[in-house]
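By convention, each integer encodes one residue's backbone shape. The lines below illustrate.
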Amino acid sequence: MAVNVYATSGSTENMSRHDMLAWVNECIQTKFAKIEELCSGAAYCQFMDMLFPGCVQVKKIKFNTKLEHEYLTNFKVLQASFKKMNVDKVVPVDRLVKGRFQDNFEFLQWFKKFFDANYDGQDYDAIGMRGGEEVGSGGKPARPNGMAKPMSGMPKRSPAPRPAPVASRPAVRPAMGGGARAANGGVNMQAKQQIEELNAQVLEMKLTVEGLEKERDFYFGKLRDVEVMCQENESTGGDLVGKVMDILYQTEDGFAVPDEEDVPPPPEEEGEEEY
């Protein structure tokens, strides 16, 4: 049986999307170029076959499909393996198959924790198990664009009568500031690369914070429901209700429950009118 894990603020690793992709590609020998490609569900199915041999029918997995209904088929295979191994994780299939980065990145973060908790180091021939099929867009070569250069027309411009005065100016400029321009161009390229990397880090941090906030609000809502139920049955619930209330109101060192007078009123929702 599988070891279940739960992604919380204290257990989630802050791995970047590049690190996550590198981990996936290395483990199951794929060539995914971006997180969104995991929306097919095929990678997770093969991970389950790697962790628990025999729990997945690999022949049913559609590895290189681009059709959403076949994505659903892959996730059905994944859910069947979860059920077989008693994994209690709810797979948000409807959101994953849409191919949005945030949904797929959050699920991959959870799966990485699940993998680490269940992998025991056994060897696995991923390519052999899927019949030698290449998976991922990263291994596809770019389309050749060799026709652009023959059509440039540069040789036709050289015999024109005007190049003589124009060529005299560039002859002076390389001696004056060609090196400076090249240096400035190199600095600008480095600055652009740094900006892109920082923007990517900011985006990943933002997505991580949003995911943690959603998780926090979810569990707070559950605790609030438990609190209301206990308050309604405090007089008839006996010792069990009292113990639950004690756990809910238990505090840690350095934390004190604020007085009701110090708590600001909740903001009024826009659009509400008094009648």
In short: The CA atoms of residues 21 and 35 lie 7 Å apart.
